[in-house]
Amino acid sequence: RAPREGAPTSAGMPSALAEGRAEVRVSGSRGRHLVATQRLRAGDIVLVAEPYAAVLDDGARHLRCDHTFATAADAGVGSLLRCARSKVARYASREAQAAAWREGYKEECAALVKCAPKVPPPTVRLAARVLWRRRRERARRETAYAEAAAESVGLGEGYDSVRALVHHWDAVAEEDRARFAHAAAAASAFLNARLAGDGISGGDAVRVPPYEPEPEPETDDFDDRDPEETPLAVAKLIARLSFNCHALCDDESRPYGVGVYPPAATMNHACFPNCAQSFRGKTLFVRCLRDVLPEEELTIAYVELAVTRAERRAELMKQYAFDIDENSAENEKSTFYRKGVPSASGEYVAPPTEVGSSVTLHDHGSFPDSAPPWRMDERDVTHACVATVRGANAGGVVVVGPARVGKTGAADAERDEGERRVEVHVWGPLAVNGFVANREHVAAVAAELARVVADAERLADEDEAPAADGSADRSKRDLCLERLGRFKRLVDGSDETTGFALGPGHALRHRAHAVALRTQIRCGDFASARKTAVKFLLPAYRRAYPFGHPPLAQHLALLAKIETFLGGAFLPAAAKHGAEAAAMLRVCQGQSPMFRAVEQRTRETEHELSVSKMGAALEDSDAENAEGGFVGG
């Protein structure tokens, strides 16, 4: 059997891969990948791993123990202890603090004091923790759990397991290499306690502004430099971390840290994954979402699945240098349109057209069989890209952009204008019963819809961010609601859009409904929130995610919670959705706190329904007895 969740993670408990459930294979097109060696069932643990190194996000540093990543509630303590010297790390106990000190925080503490009062971004700190651990390995061979796990999958021991991960250095764009090199310079300075506080930004973990490190001591012997700590080697390490790290998330998929798990990094992405990951503190668990046959590849989802395939591919290329077009397992489930080839009707794609100052129209043909020059899956064709004219399906629309923007100022006007640029791809006749929609007008409307959704998402994020005094900024919420109102007026084919609308399952609608749900809950409008969750979002989640995948399970749990709060006639639905959510959470998270909470709430709802039915039956019986009088009276 695989190790149980919560079991101690030490050298005596190697990765679950050592139990013979899976093994790493290597192929030309797939690279390293994980394959099942025996029949596995839904909920089976196929991998348990501790990170080679991990760091907490900036927002989680004061909420979680820096050594175990547990919250105060998880650790059963009233509050966390703060490091008196660095004033950065917090610990659940003196024992955790002592263990962290032995495992490298001694060096990091000195580096943090040097760059106080600011703290380097997580990527810089993670790279430094990796290299500090490597230094300790060179001084004395460690026998840690993470090394045993990595060695069991053929990645080598210690730092060798990190160095075995791909960095894609020669394939990434020049600007990406420059960003990696910039972060590497900051990491090297932090590693040697030479990074001054005025050389640190609390923003993007890669875009570290220039700093003024102390000069290195002069030496004529350059051969003594550690080959893994040269500027190029550290830059490639940053690249490895960028492409192979895992975001540590709680049961509700809220991120709290990032770590490098060499065994788990061998798992490939799939848009139809058969596994999912979860975390307990720093420990990573991978479970099967369904039954898996021997020799079947074990996969997870790297990115959001409730978007178009083109968006998934772009995000995977950007974040992981992973191209799903080269993934044969994915090709079998995708419709393939070859780039640069005319459609079956012989119609060639028109050159891009500028619509206004910040919209580019890409017209891929107006025939019924016209299609964009990229691969689409079934969900794209039937829902995520569908455009309608006067209520009838009439083609497809995909919008790329805009980038999310923050508060704008006069100095940032040019930059923000570029971030607001939108690319609109259209295809198909966009006509019905003799009425033909103007394609440039369609592009302008689609671009406005995308901008409105991006604004609403930004405003919702700002509304949920606590103010310095703990108060809520109602203006952000009101602006978000105004943006959502404009989206609703445009998206359904009003006079302003001359009959053009997005299909009911279009990806932009999904994003707008997701923002609406968050805002309705914060406003306390649970009746509207329930309608949004059931009518609009639940069908989209069911189309995008397999049974047991965390986002689907979490949405069902939220829906059941809303229905329980509404009570009355909604309790039967709450019991149904709660039971379904609990079944999925058991598969993807095991006996997690969230699973136990959902299961307990569902049992209480079912008990309340049972009591209500018994009470109604007794009332009916009393009414019948009253009508018939006493027998023998």
From TrEMBL:
Question: Acidic residues bias located where?
Answer: 213-227
Matching InterPro entries: H3K4_H4K5_MeTrfase, SET_dom, SET_dom_sf, TPR-like_helical_dom_sf
Q: Which stretches make up the SET domain?
A: 20-303
Please give the GO cellular component terms listed in this UniProt entry: nucleus
Query: Which residues span the membrane?
Result: none
Q: Which SUPFAM superfamilies match?
A: SET domain
Stretch list, region Disordered: 1-20, 203-227
Domain of life according to the entry: Eukaryota
| Protein name, entry field | SET domain-containing protein
Source species: Micromonas pusilla (Picoplanktonic green alga)
